[in-house]
Amino acid sequence: MRFFKDAKFGFIEQRRKAYLVSAAVLAVGLGAVGVNLFTLGSWLHYGVDFTGGSLIQVQVAEGITDAELREALGGAQAPPITRFGADNEYTIRAPLVEGVDADQVAAGLRDQLAASPQLGDFQVVRTEIVGPQIGEELAQRAVMAVLISFLLTLIYIGFRFEFRFGLAAVIATVHDIMVTLGFLALFRVEMSLATVAAVLTIIGYSLNDTIVVFDRIRENLNKKGGRREDPLKLINRSINEVLPRTVLTSGTTLAVLGALLILGGAVIRDFALVLIFGVVIGTYSSIYVASPALLEIQRRWGTKEDHKKKQRRKKPRSEEAIPV
């Protein structure tokens, strides 16, 4: 069974509507960034990994669940808790509090655990203080990783396809990152190492989906008569041809991420939520951003063949007959 086997949707014809949708989503994201700057003092909700804080590893009695541990630390207001090592060992990441020393924050967490009768005996395995300098270094490396991925994308796609393909892929990836960051700002998802990993995964997924579409466009271009076909029709036909693969890949990925979101617990919830949003946006951008961008680039600056033809026209005729 193959879904959308003979699909003939007019994706490219709807590109102007898609531009409006993207512009609206980006505007909402920018508005959320402005609100966060005014209320939080930063445009994203940074977690302990970036702002600094206390990290405590505790060993609780057998049979104590992470939900019970989270309830002992304030329920919904509890800091992030992650299972670490054995089944009864957890790490607690508490952010810095203005005017309160990090050691005092750690001591307060230990007091909360000691005051909970349901936990019983517990042992603090280690306590670490994470400084904000580490967070700054992590942020710089995350940005550097994204910039390097852009450069490598341009080189790879420019070498395998043409430069216009690489430029269109980078435009789509920038669109995905901006929309995802707007999503993080709008819902104030905590920016942690897991969230950074999710954003980098989204970049890879989006690029992979875009390359699949571009590969089919290149195949159709190289077929007999492909270079003479209307670019809009050729790109649209290529998208429809890979639509079954796109739908099945995105659908199965979303099914797994949905299970993680529902069953994975609070620790992995933000990671799964960001990835779900990113897969949807990545699939959308490969159809409605990357492909239209490729069409616009070709119409504005032409193809490699067009430039070769122009160069041949500019060359003077050689060995013309000179009248005597």
Can you offer a commentary on this structure?
It is a single chain. Helix 6 runs antiparallel to helix 7 (193-222) and helix 7 (193-222) packs parallel to helix 9. The protein has helices at residues 15-39, 48-51, 66-72, 102-115, 132-160, 163-187, 193-222, 231-263, 266-301, 304-314; strands spanning 45-46, 53-60, 81-83, 89-95, 122-130, 190-191. Strand 3 and strand 4 (89-95) form a beta hairpin. With 324 residues, it is of the alpha+beta class. It has 10 helices and 6 strands. The strands form 2 sheets. The protein has a 4-stranded antiparallel sheet with strand order 3-4-2-5. It has a two-stranded parallel sheet with strand order 1-6. The protein has 2 domains: 16-37 and 135-306, Multidrug efflux transporter AcrB transmembrane domain (Multidrug efflux transporter AcrB transmembrane fold); 53-130, Alpha-Beta Plaits, CATH 3.30.70.
